[in-house]
């Protein structure tokens, strides 16, 4: 007798936060219990308390705010992809921006490190950067060119791990700037998102290969093909139970993969909603940013994620 795998039921609710031109892209839970999100085309940072109306704070209109994360200082930090700056916004809405050493860096991913600083990728300069909470920037060159370093996350080993989208590799950089690269088994995988699991390994998305990857601190890589290889997995986060959740930007879905590699997928209610960033929200549910103008809440049908 063939066993049908159990697919957990979820409820998905969408909360409009901007018009379709503003482009919600990345989101994070702030220390104030709100969701903070970037409006990549609208040049603003938004804030949503679940159940209330969204508000937003203006930036330089053309700066292209991209990835946002909570910082170690109680503020939110974000990259300005087109402004070539690192931004900081307090929970009261006070904004600062810190210029990078040259106006051609294309900062994209950003994450808080174990050293009390923020680490970020420079897509156009083959560098990883580090910025202290008072705005001091240090850059570390990578041993490859044209690699397009993308997302970055703190690993459980005290180092920062990042994806190299055009080099088909995962990178590791320690606090002294020493870099190690781990090539992926799949050529043309184009990794984007990365997030730390609870077991010391990291999960990452392969947007061009339609796979989810997992890498251990010693560099061992496992790849999990998705049922829809054309789904274009983009961002990834890990919930409290160790399940990795990811967006399928090209398929209008949110997926989940358990530590043993079991995959489930959940269609979003609005066609063509373009899910990008994903995070665990202040209410314990999963939240994803839909570039068409909303945040979507994804939770098991019987309670929070």
UniProtKB/TrEMBL annotation:
InterPro entries according to UniProt: Vgb, Vgb_bact, WD40/YVTN_repeat-like_dom_sf
Cellular component, GO annotation: outer membrane-bounded periplasmic space
A Pfam match: Vgb_lyase
Keywords, alphabetical: Antibiotic resistance, Lyase, Magnesium, Metal-binding
Keyword tRNA processing: no
UniProt-annotated binding residues for Mg(2+): 274, 291
E.C. code: 4.2.99.-
Principal EC category: lyase
Signal peptide (residue range): none
Names of the cofactor(s): Mg(2+)
GO biological process, one term: antibiotic catabolic process
GO molecular function, one term: magnesium ion binding
Active site: residue positions: 276
Assembly with partners or alone: Monomer.
Function: Inactivates the type B streptogramin antibiotics by linearizing the lactone ring at the ester linkage, generating a free phenylglycine carboxylate and converting the threonyl moiety into 2-amino-butenoic acid.
Family in the record: Belongs to the Vgb family.
Protein name: Virginiamycin B lyase
